Amino acid sequence: MAKERFVEVYSQGITNVEKIIVDTETGVNYILASSALTVGCGMSVLVDQNGKPIVTPIS
Questions:
Q1: CB atoms within 10 A of CB 45
Q2: Is the CB of residue 52 less than 8 Å from the CB of residue 30?
Q3: N- to C-terminal Cα distance for the chain?
Q4: Of 26, 19, 20, which Cα lies nearest the Cα of 5?
Q5: Residue 50 carries which DSSP code?
Q6: What is the DSSP letter of 8?
């Protein structure tokens, strides 16, 4: 079976949900936020205090 390209490493919330997703090929972290109250969803690269993408080392 092929390795998953994206993996969820963190999740919080029930109605308003935030998840951190990691790209297993690049290590780049993304934040996914969704709200059942407004039926909206958004995804963005997660950045550090200097505006650089947060990258998880891939082994």
A1: 14
A2: no
A3: 18
A4: 26
A5: T
A6: E
